[in-house]
Every structure is written in structure tokens, then in C-alpha cells.
Design goal:
Layout lengths: L1 E10 L2 E11 L4 E5 L6 H8 L6 E6 L2 E2 L10 E4 L11 H11 L5 H9 L15 H13 L5 E5 L7 H16 L3 E5 L3 H7 L2 E6 L2 E7 H8 L3 E6 L2 H10 L4 E4 L2 E5 L3 H10 L4 E7 L3 H9 L14
Parallel strand pairs: 3-8, 3-9, 6-7, 7-8
Antiparallel strand pairs: 1-2, 1-4, 4-5, 9-10, 11-13, 11-14, 12-13
Helix pairs in contact: 2-3, 3-4, 7-10
Amino acid sequence: MIEAKQLKKNFGKKVAVDGISFRVDTGKVTGFLGPNGAGKSTTMRLMLDLAEGEGQTLYDGKRLHDYVHPSEMVGILLEAKSFHPTRSAHNHLKILAIEGNIPLKRVDEVLDKVGLSSEAKESPGKFSLGMSQRLGLAAALLANPTYLILDEPANGLDPEGIVWLRKFLKSYADDSHGVFVSSHLLSEMSLLADNIVVIGKGKLLADTNMKDFISGNVGTSVFVRVKDNDKFKEILDKEQISYIKENGGFNIEKLKTDKVGELAFRNKIIVFELMTKTASLEDAFLEVTVGSEEFNGKMPTNE
């Protein structure tokens, strides 16, 4: 596993990362979330000893610089365009392979994995952001590392590319690897990650599995739409059942569908729609990070 211990970083008087600790397990994808300015990129750099700060990060019990070939322990993608713009994609990876004592056959293998075989002789300076992300991922994969640390790897990818990335990272983790990945695409992260680490203003807000994170912060509710709203409202008020009117019906918390259906049946009310509403990762994320946004605009209203 990767163990991040008491990571801390200040920029002058501002605390960017405030003594956070968490772990990244093999066999799982761990999502890294936080509002803009939360300290995610700085945390990743601290983990890789690319930024000066306090604390330490252990990779299978050792510091990264204690390994003879660190690239075999962790592959990184922090910036999409970290390459010479006029050097071909193949030669860019070839130089990295030579420096890392990696067999040159891996260059063609990783280009094929990320779908850039046909662009191998092209200069990446002409690449789109999505293609640059693929080349960066290819570089991270060169040494077939135990872990991947990826900062916003889905940026610039089209929908097909995002689906490909999700399937690839889940498959990579399933093969006894660990993946630590940040993203602002919450709907995609809900499909990708097994575990979640959330920070806000440099502080650790959550470190748990996806299911517990969602259920532990935002509960489920029941949505019901009936023929006679006025009569059903009177019944809910009489039973002292709290609700919110929405979408032509009622959103009811702390009750299950069978209880709501029974209540309507007992009072001879025709039900058009009855369903359980499960909270989303977005709901849980907004609940956990409220008040920790660095930049906070006004939410639109219907007024």
C-alpha cells in the first residue's frame, strides 16, 4: 500500500496541506476529490517528494527515493504536456525508457495500450489535450509500476476516451496494482473509484470506501407522485411526516417505499409513481465540502 503520513505544506502564511494522512491500497482505485484550491495537486507532489514540506509517504513500507528504480514502484501523470513539443511521441518514450533502464519494447506496448500507435511518429506539440493525456499515461505505464498517481487524467478526453480510461484503470487496479486518481468529474468518479479521499482547504474531510461515503453523508429518500396531491399532503401533515414538494410529487425522507405505498393504499389514493431516490456522489461531496470551497460563487435561483 501507499501510506501518506501527516503531509503538510505552507505557502508563506497560507496552509496548503494541513497534516493529512491516508492510504492507497493495491487492487483498488482510490479517488482523490476536493474543491478547487483544496490542495490536491500539492498533496500529490508531496507524496512524490516533488515539493518540500512535512510528513512522509511510504510505498510498500519504503520511501520512494530508497528504491533503485522508483519508476517501477509508481508511475505519475501530473501535467498533460510534460514533453518536448518537437520530439516524436515514440522518441519521447524511448528516452524515458533508456533513462529508466526499461526494455525498449515497452515503448510500442504502451503506445498500443493508450491508442497512440498510429501517432507514434508525430510530434506531440500538435496533439490535442486528450492525446497529450494519453501520451502522459503511456509514460506513466512504461515500467509497469505497482502504483499510478494521476492528476486529472480525464481532462480533454472525449466521452469515448473517458469510458476507455475508466475501464483501463479499473483493469489495472484489478491486476494487483493501486491507482490514486484525482478528477472533477464526479459522475465518472462514482463509476471508477472503490475508495475515496476528500480534502478541503488542505484538511482531510473523508477517507473511506465509496458506498460508505455516500450513505454516511446523504441518506436515501422516497419520491411519490399521486393523483390527489392536496389529500395526500393532508395525510402527511396529519401523520407528521416531513416532505419536500418537487417535480409534481413529494420527496419523503426516513421512510421506505413500502410504508409510503401502504399509507397511500390505506387512504385510497392512486399512486402514479413511487421510487427510492439514492444519493449520488455529487450530493455527498457537496455535503462534506460545504464551507471548504476556496472560490464560491452564488448559486442560481428560480426567482
